[in-house]
Amino acid sequence: MEASEDTQATDSTPAPAAAGPETADGGSLRSRTRHAFEEQRHPGIRWFLGFIQILIVLSIVAFTIETMPTLSPELRKILHGFEVFAIGIFTAEYLLRLWMAESRPRFLFSFFGIIDLLVILPFYLQFAVDLRSLRVF
Length: 137
What we know:
Layout: H1 2-11, H2 29-39, H3 43-66, H4 73-100, H5 104-108, H6 111-125
Helix pairs in contact: 3-4, 4-6
């Protein structure tokens, strides 16, 4: 018994560190999430992607309505609230896609990564920079 304890003490080498939290079938949560989004078989993923598409269309409609000069202050307040909600969802989706990307730099500089960033960035920049001078019309 004593010899086996010595063997265990000398043969115990630390296990390599895992890349992330492992799931029951051995894949990391990040890779399983990425795979679920790529496959789009889970109804929750399809619902989420459909929701994002509808939100994009509604955001375009809201933006168009906001340009009307005779808009009432109440409607402007509602549209601003919707914009904050939509940007929050778009930001969460962007961060989720960045987190689950195989290569984060490749995602950041991909066509859709740049488009997504260009959609959410002006909202956050308005708190740091006066963007009124950038308006074309």
